[in-house]
Design brief:
single chain, about 230 residues, alpha+beta, Gyrase A, domain 2, Alpha-Beta Plaits, five-stranded antiparallel beta sheet, 10 strands, about 20% helix
């Protein structure tokens, strides 16, 4: 009796490690800025289009847990995603918003929004790969922004909940203020410009590096001695 041939088993595909455009800069950004610059990798993002007021806007609000901001250059906190940290809904235009959320699967944000918006005339598109998120914190955050951004970021005019579509170091960004103290900002930059902007930030932080570190007291001045005996 002939032997039954053993079926060949195809080798399993290798598991690809998830990465992002700033993977090679993340450690340097944290170390060389004293933790003032951080990266929020794999942040879920979706562009929502809806008429306000209208059923699509109300459907988006039900999903996000907050009203869509209608005042230009503002953003509103949204319900936390799967990652736990609260999201954000950023005004981009009269009928357009950028939604940010911590999600284990970025496409899940689009799925939830599309299911609610499309039947009532709205739309939602996943743009998670379009931008990277950088977080600027600390006493020198405003100084660094002022080196390459024309927007006045003083808390009196750019407090928490304010946003701007502007340039930072000649790179187009969406800038969010997350504090009324002028010490916490989020920068959303196109993925293709992310490494450039990371290097620009490292350069801009050079003059502030170690500025708050304690200094050793100056030594006592050396007094010249004379040939006579000390009394």
């Amino acid at each position: 009796m002939a032997d039954t041939p053993t079926p060949s088993v195809a080798p399993s595909a290798p598991t690809l490690r998830r990465s992002h455009p700033l993977a090679s800069r993340e450690e340097d950004l944290r170390a060389l800025t004293g933790g003032s610059v951080g990266v929020r990798p794999h942040l879920a993002m979706a562009v929502v289009r809806a008429a306000v007021p209208g059923p699509a806007a109300r459907a988006a609000e039900d999903v996000l847990g907050t009203a869509l901001p209608t005042r230009p250059n503002t953003w509103a906190p949204a319900a936390p995603g799967g990652g736990g940290e609260p999201g954000a809904v950023v005004w981009l235009g009269p009928d357009e918003w950028l939604v940010l959320a911590d999600e284990p699967r970025p496409e899940a944000l689009e799925e939830r929004l599309r299911a609610a918006l499309v039947p009532v005339g709205g739309s939602a598109v996943d743009v998670s790969a379009q931008r990277m998120s950088l977080r600027l914190r600390g006493a020198h955050a405003r100084d660094v922004l002022a080196a390459g951004c024309a927007v006045d970021t003083h808390p009196a005019v750019f407090g928490a909940g304010t946003s701007a579509q502007t340039l930072l170091g000649q790179a187009g960004v969406v800038l969010l203020s997350r504090s009324d103290a002028g010490d916490d900002y989020e920068v959303l930059v196109r993925s293709s410009f992310a490494r450039y902007l990371a290097d620009w930030l490292l350069d801009a932080f050079v003059e502030h590096r170690g500025a708050e570190a304690p200094r050793d007291p100056a030594p006592d001045p050396v007094r010249p001695t004379t040939g006579g005996a000390t009394p």
